[in-house]
Structure formats: C-alpha cells, structure tokens
Design brief:
The chain is α+β, with helices and mostly antiparallel strands and about 650 residues long. It contains 13 helices and 34 strands.
Amino acid sequence: MQVQGLSAQNPKPDLEALEERAFKQATAFVNPSIVRIETVGGQDRVGKLITGTGPTSGVIVSRDGLIISSAFNFIGKPSSILVTLPDGRRFPAQIVATDHLKMLTLLKIGAQNLPVPLAVPEKEIQVGMWAIALGRTFDLDQPSISVGIVSALGRIWGKAIQTDAKISPINYGGPLVDINGRLMGILVPLSPGATGETAGVEWYDSGIGFAIPMYDVLKIIPRLNTGKDLHPGKLGITLSGKGDLSTDMKLDRVRYGSPAQEAGLKAGDTVIKFDGQTTKMHSQIKQILMRKYAGESASLTVTREGFSEPQTFQVTLVEKLVPFESGFLGILPQRTMNSQVAGVGVRYVFSKSAAAKAGLKSNDRILEFNQQKVANSEALASMVNHLRPSDPAELLILRDQKQLKLKVTLQSTPHSVASSLPTQALPSRTAAKNEQQKIKVGHFKDQLPGDDQKFWVYVPENYSPNHQYGLMVWIHPPGNTMESTILKEWKSICEQRGIILVGPSAQDVIRWNRDETEFVKEVVESIKTRYAIDSKRIFLISHANGSEFAFHLAFKYRELFRGVAVSASSIRDQPPETDPDFPLSFYFVLNANNPFNKLLQPQIEALRKMNYPTVFQMIKNEKPASDYLEKPHLEEIGRWADSLDRI
C-alpha cells in the first residue's frame, strides 16, 4: 500500500562511480597498444634542457611493429632505444624518421601481430568532450592516467588538439583518447610562439597540453615509413605590418634565393590569397603555411602596382632558406633629438667601408637613398637593409651647403670593432646640472613597484635628457652579483660613451631561473620610461656562467636587445634565424687558457655563417681563465656598443 503524499523513488545513480568505470574501461580498451620507451646514451643536455633516459611512451600504429612517439623523447640522440610491450616483451627499436613540423618520431621494432587502436573520426572530435591522457612508465600493468576535456581544436596554427588534462614528459608520445578508448591524438609538447625540439616543454602539467590529431598522424605515417624526415616548409617572405593580427598584407621583403623570389614575387606586392584561400591578416598566412612541409607546393595571389589584374605565383616550399644578410653602408648616424632637420647626419665613417670608398665624410648629411627621401636614421637603416651586399645604390648628400650625388656598392657587415671611434659630444656636468634636478643620477638601488626583487643602476652624472643613451644590462654570474667590480670598471666608459648601466639581481643569487626573464624585461622597460634611451643600443653583457641566461634573454626578446657581449663563456642555445627587423650582434672575449676555447671556435664560425655580426677576441696572458676583463678589452666592448646603431 502506498502512503498518501509519498511516492516510490528510484535510487540516484552514482555518477562518480559511473565516470570512474568509464575511464577505466576506456583505458583498458587502448592499454594493449601503449608501449614503454627507454633511451640509452646520447647527449646529457640539449640547450638548457637536461635530457632524460626515460621511460617515456609510444603508441603502436601497425601490426608489424611501427610505433609513433613524440620527437621530444629522442632529442638527446640516444645510442640505443628499447621498447617494452604491455605483455613484458622487450625489443630494440630503430628510428625510421622524424616529422619536425608535428614533432613526431616513427620507430620500428621486430614484432608481428601487434594490437592497433581505433581512431576517432575527425568530425566526431568536439570541444568539451572527455579527454584521457595516457602514458606507460614504470608499471606495465596500468598506464598513467590524467583526465580532462578537449578545450580547443585547431590550436598551434591548426596543428593540434588542446586539452586541460595534465601532460608531462612521461606521457609525451602517449595517446589522448575519448571516453570510449578511441585514439584522438598523440601527446607532444608544442608552443604557439616558438619552434624547435624543446618548444612547449615548459608548460608541462599546467593544464595546457597538446596532441597531434590521429587523422593527421595516419596521413604522414606512410611518408615517414620511407625513412625520410619531414620538415616545415619555408617560403621566404616578410610582411610589412607587425603582429599576427596586422592587416597590412604588403610584402616588405622577399628573401634572396627563397622559393618566393624564384617564383617571381617582389617587395611591394600585396597578398590577397594564399593557397586559394582569401587572406586579410598575417595570422591567416601563418595558419596555412605552418601546416605545410618542405617539398609541397602552394600558390600566392597578389596585386602588383602597374598591373590591373591580380597575379598568381606557384611556389615549392623548402626546408632551409639562405640566411638573410642585409647590406652595410658603413656609417654611424648622428644622434640628434631634433626631428625637424631633413636627412641623416654622418657621425662616423668606418674605414674601408662602402661609404668610405664612395667618399662619404663625417658631418655630411644624407638626404636621399636611391631617390627616396631619408626622414631619419631608422628610415635609412630600413632602406639599406632591404638590399644585399654587392648591391649598388645612390646617395644624395649635403656637404658644405652643396648637394652631391655619390654611388656606393654595399658590403657585408664586418666582424670587427673600429680601432678608434671618437665619442660623441656629451653635455658637461655644469650644463646638465639644472636639467638633473628632478632626475636621479649616479649609482643607486631600485625595485619595480609592487615587486621585492631588486636591481641597481648607474646613470652618468652628466646625464642630459636631450641626448639619447645606450643601455647596458649586466647579467651577473650565479653566486656573485659583481656589482662593485662592474661599477668600478665600467663607470668611466659609460660616461665617455653615453651609456646607462643596469644590473638586475636574480631572486636567488646562486642562479637565474628562466621565469625571471620577464623581470629583466620589465626592468629595461622601466629604465626606458625614465631616461632617454636609444632603442638601437640596448645590449646585454655577462661573464662566465651568467652568459647562458643573457643569450636566453636576447633570443627571447629579439625586439628589445640589439647585442650580447660575453666573456669567459661559450653559447649553448641555438640562435634563431637572422631577422633584418631585429638585428643582433655578438661579442665574445675568451682567455686562451679557457677550456671553452675549443668549443667556442666552431660556434663563432656557425654564427658568422648565419650572417650574425660576431666579434671574437682571444686574450693571451697568464691570468686565470675565469678572471674578469682588463681595461683595453672593456674599452673595445664600449666601442662595439657605441656602434650598434651602425648602418
């Protein structure tokens, strides 16, 4: 009998238990296809990253022994690779080939009749669905499990599924599966703003993880199985606008010897379609280009001045571009705050340069370059670096109130420092005194608002806001800020060369952490807002092990730093390609007794082949190899820094 007011109720299902059961079932379904990978031997370090020996993960993709994994697992170039199947069998593995675009590596083991997982059809993957990240490390019975959702599709320029499941190096190369245990993709580290073997690793376990969709993996496995590596395709163009959201689609530069140049594209063309798709902003170009491989074809449709109809050009992408090398005129411009005067004054002419051979002299004023009016030194530098060494040009100059035309043939930027570079006239202490009443000068300690991390500053006593100053950023070696030494040795040079010195201090003085790059950048930006800083002469200087962090800063913030000068050190990070919009120069000085000597010599050659202006000075004396520099070498670095705005 039913009591009035009461009704029979079905017990509520235990949703957590059901979810747990579903996760376990999905894992069990794909588990036989997840393998453990161990690497033996190879490099201990790649760049800043200490490589591991495993174990990591992989996924079986063919019954006859093909296994796909993350390329990150093999960056140390191991001497041997071992694969362990879930049933305990172990096999030596060989690398078949690597996809350097999607960062995947195909392996082969001598096994047959292996279980291949089911893949999710492309159209079924949706944002919000369950995503289970798996990996096989120490326990052969059960894989490691991290659960999340699919948080975005088409990420990293259309290459990847994004998930908030926590992804670590232990499951790089493992599968990302749906609630039914079907394979959605292969887990890899990726970054939207960086490329390379270690890009994206810093995000591990952050809730931002990526997987290459399985439908894309299946397309490239036959190509990898031929034994040939796949590489990102390069086109060789630079667009005029800045930033991915720019709508300025005009070609600013077409790289010499690139597919774009060989196809007939020219600077000044405006891109309206790429591979048949309408393109109205930079990001659309990148979205298409960054999914293509070297050897693949594409088409660019452009409008060109003088042609009534759009022109279409076919290009074949390449693996590597000829390193960019801009022309060098051979002058230092006068540094004036007066923008009302036409043209660019010549402060200094480098010996044996194109300018010197053409007869250009100090105090001449360049009014036109190749029939284009010269508004300022930035405009002149842009005109010059759009051309290559050996290209001819014509100058219209003003000398003694008379206009003259000079013909020049541009040269390569020299790997040397002017032996005698006069200082530019700076205000006297008395003349600058009134201007300085509200400006902090001399040596002082400071910190950013709301931040307890400190830095110190030296502003020359004769500082004047009417003169632009260089900015030297001292990156101290671990364990010693060297503040008193650096101030003592550099003070007079800073006064003579018009340089402000800033020394950020690491949070923990014994080492720099990579997450402190933002602090250093903010310190530089703070100094730029308070003092008259020439953006073309902001450079990093370091000694011994501090150089490692200095190079990392320079490569990360290309738009900020124009040079790196280091002593008693080599370079560990792989430099990016040269960029004419963000020129970067290097200065190395090393004691002949330093063990880095043999390592540094081929690095210098490699930098010069990449067309980076690179000065190398060897010290031959009996002083300890780790000692800081003596005055003659510091003065040469001062002249090097004083010429970073060369054209």
